[in-house]
Design a protein that fits this description.
This protein has 337 residues and is α+β, with helices and mostly antiparallel strands. The protein has two domains: 1-64, no CATH class; 66-337, Nucleotidyltransferase, domain 5, CATH 3.30.420.40. The chain has helices spanning 3-29, 92-99, 153-163, 169-176, 217-239, 260-270, 281-295, 316-336; strands at residues 43-44, 49-50, 70-73, 85-87, 106-111, 115-121, 133-136, 143-149, 187-189, 207-209, 249-253, 274-277, 305-309. The protein has a seven-stranded mixed sheet with strand order 7-8-6-5-11-12-13, sandwiched between helices. Strands 1-2 form a two-stranded antiparallel sheet. It is globular, with a radius of gyration of 22 Å. The two termini are 32 Å apart.
Length: 337
């Protein structure tokens, strides 16, 4: 390594030590909740101000910018675009929440490659579990909690590609529907890429437990779909450590929302009806925020409900599957530490 590279890594190490010392100091003084995420290290989330009173300088001395603020205009662009306002945006999940009109009391469930649970707050509250992010929301004066299971639709794509080459997702669903709930004792852990929430184990790995000679490809398909539903419930139970998480409705978006059988499983495992909406996506949410910044209007994006999926009355197989899922995770956890 040359001297420049050595200086770079020594600088990174020094900054890391300073950050750790600052965090310990802030925790001791009660400035930051103990579950603060590194990305929020120097930000007082409740007051939305930089913390600068314990020996660490502000990030570049820059002020905070709120989503919707006009931060400049376009310059080095074709003449027709010159002078257009540039509006501060938002993260993908916050913009997606705007695009699906999530409001306080709504629990958002996004079934993309990963599975995201999103809860809007009208006042800042520290997250009830270390795996849950507590962030400023895109709308000024609101916050949100967000928790993520890594392998949601990503698990289903893996299943289709490896076990059903050339088949459609609808064909996978149809075969999974031939197996009763609980997959006759076969359970799947969707940890193909490690797991974020709620176990926070980057070394976790996917697994099937309970496989016997009677199980078929259809059982594997059913187990994968159910396993993701159990993982979502695992995340939700961490959120429900806070009594305020009692959704008035659960709004579902993402590519996985096209699967009716999967939605039925998730509704039953979570014990909540699911409201399926037209998924306009994060890009439309970001455009709506830009509109708000330019016009000053903060009306919600109109919500278009496509379907409602109720939990199944018979949940016996899912209850047994959930208990088995939790038991397997607890017993394998020492291997992932």
């Amino acid at each position: 390594m040359d001297s420049t590279g050595g200086q770079y890594y020594r600088s990174v190490a020094r900054i890391g030590r300073q950050a750790a010392e600052a965090l310990a100091h802030a925790h001791a003084r009660g400035i930051i909740h103990r579950d603060v995420k590194p990305s929020n290290l120097l930000l007082d989330m409740a007051g939305i101000v930089w913390i600068t009173d314990f020996g660490v300088a502000k990030t570049g001395g820059k002020s905070l910018t709120t989503t919707g603020d006009i931060v400049g205009t376009l310059r080095d662009v074709p003449p027709v675009l010159q002078g257009l306002p540039v509006v501060a945006g938002a993260g993908d999940q916050a913009a997606s929440a705007v695009g699906s009109s999530l409001s306080p009391g709504d629990l958002g469930v996004s079934l993309g490659t990963s599975g995201v649970l999103f809860w809007t707050l009208e006042a800042f509250e520290p997250a009830p579990h270390p795996s849950i992010h507590a962030f400023c929301h895109a709308w000024p004066g609101t916050w949100h909690w967000m928790t993520v299971t890594q392998g949601a639709a990503g698990s289903v794509k893996w299943l289709r590609d490896r076990f059903y080459p050339g088949a459609s997702f609808a064909e996978v669903d149809a075969e999974a529907a031939t197996v009763p709930s609980g997959a006759e004792g076969l359970v799947y852990l969707p940890y193909l890429e490690g797991e974020r929430a709620p176990i926070m184990r980057p070394n976790a790995r996917g697994a099937f437990y309970g496989l016997t000679s009677r199980h078929t490809r259809a059982h594997v398909a059913r187990a994968v779909l159910e396993g993701v539903a159990y993982s979502l419930r695992h995340c939700l139970e961490a959120m429900r450590r806070s009594p305020q998480v009692a959704p008035r409705r659960v709004i579902v978006t993402g590519g996985g929302a096209r699967s009716r059988i999967w939605l039925s499983m998730i509704a039953t495992v979570l014990g909540e009806p699911l409201t399926v909406v037209e998924d306009l996506g994060a890009a439309v949410g970001a455009a709506w925020l830009a509109r708000s910044g330019v016009t000053g209007r903060r009306d919600p994006l109109p919500l278009h409900v496509k379907d409602t999926v109720e939990p199944d009355a018979d949940r016996g197989g899912y209850d047994a599957g959930w208990e088995l899922y939790r038991a397997v995770v607890e017993r394998l956890d020492p291997l992932w530490q």
